[in-house]
Specification:
Elements (H helix, E strand, L loop, with lengths): L2 E2 L2 H23 L4 E7 L3 H16 L3 E7 L5 H13 L5 E4 L9 H7 L11 H9 L7 H13 L7 E5 L6 H10 L3 E5 L6 H5 L4 E4 L17 E4 L3 E3 L7 E3 L4 H4 L5 E2 L6 H21 L1
Parallel strand pairs: 1-11, 2-3, 2-4, 5-6, 5-7, 7-8, 8-11
Antiparallel strand pairs: 9-10
Helix pairs in contact: 1-10, 2-10, 6-7, 6-10
The chain binds nicotinamide-adenine-dinucleotide (NAD).
């Protein structure tokens, strides 16, 4: 029997608990936690993500502060907005939606966000804290991925975890979190030799590659926990495009002990942890 790791349901449970904690924060501090979301330009996927983030922020009782800027906004103007949000006492979290237009250096903007308000956890100060195991703000998708793995098996200690992907926003922080869970962690990437053979040694396999249906049955050790972070759009017959993960779910699921679907797995968990990071940032700032 394979367990379906339902991120949609777990995220909903998290939001229910957050709603109560947000109400307590608001009663105590006389204002709700505030999340500022900055979107530059009209990227269709980014518009959908920002729309969901704003809606869910408000649903849990937090204040959403939206800044939608024109596609030709200059770097200096965006940096000035980040400075204003850093200085605003009612803003607890700042999220600048990526990708940014070419005229803006994304690293420069992300590095300008006050680490105490960096709810995406991308600032080098927070990345460094994660690396040394100090408390800080941790990226949301990795938190969601590990929460789903722990839904399958609460104690991950001693498992061999293979993470495919070494990006700063997913692969590396997932690996750091799994190390904190006492897994033995291998990070695989595009230059890894015999990737399928390596993955077949994984008790826990995390795919964060960005290639549709890349992980097939011969990557899966029987009984493994499989976490699919990938979100890829495949053209389909009606021309709308279908969302698929990095894992070929139909091939992998019969072998796995537990697996995340796409959509409905890691995706919804990412937003739930964005909200939880915002509340956490608010509490730390208010303390
Ligand atoms: P990225 O392009 O920055 O990194 C991809 C990684 O995959 C690289 O480190 C690369 O070494 C590795 N890779 C590429 N080709 C490979 C190959 N043939 N064999 C082995 N490794 C290979 O991507 P990212 O930002 O880390 O995102 C990865 C995926 O996760 C994407 O599909 C993205 O859409 C998705 N994602 C989902 C969420 C979510 O909320 N669920 C959030 C962020 C990213």
């Amino acid at each position: 029997m394979t367990t379906l790791l339902d991120g949609k349901a777990l995220a909903q449970t998290m939001r229910g608990a957050l709603k109560e904690e947000v109400a307590a924060f608001t009663a105590r501090h006389g204002r709700p936690p505030g999340l500022a979301v900055v979107l530059v330009g009209h990227d269709p996927a980014s518009q959908v993500y920002v729309g969901s983030k704003v809606k869910q922020t408000e649903e849990v009782g937090m204040r959403s502060i939206e800044h939608r800027l024109a596609a030709d906004t200059g770097e200096a103007a965006l940096l000035a907005l980040v400075d204003r949000l850093n200085a605003d006492p009612e803003v607890d979290g700042i999220l600048v939606q990526l990708p940014l237009p070419v005229q803006i250096d994304a690293d420069k903007v992300l590095n300008r966000i006050d680490p105490a308000k960096d709810v995406d956890g991308f600032h080098p100060v927070n990345a460094g804290k994660l690396a040394i195991g100090a408390p800080g703000l941790v990226p949301c998708t990795p938190l969601g991925s590990v929460a789903l793995a722990k839904l399958a098996q609460p104690d991950l200690s001693g498992l061999h975890a293979v993470v495919i992907g070494r990006s700063n926003i997913v692969g590396k922080p997932v690996a750091q979190l799994l190390l904190q869970e006492n897994c033995t962690v291998t990070i695989a990437h595009s230059r890894t030799r015999d990737l399928a053979g390596l993955c077949r040694t994984a008790d826990l396999l995390v795919a964060a590659i960005g290639r549709p249906l890349f992980v097939t049955a011969n990557f899966i050790k029987p009984g493994a926990i499989v976490i699919d972070v990938g979100i890829n759009r495949l053209a389909d017959a009606d021309g709308k495009g279908k969302l698929v993960g990095d894992v070929d779910f139909a091939a992998a699921a019969p072998l796995a002990s537990a697996i995340t679907p796409v959509p409905g797995g890691v995706g919804p968990m990412t937003i739930a942890f964005l909200l939880s990071n915002t509340l956490r940032a608010g509490r730390l700032r208010a303390a």
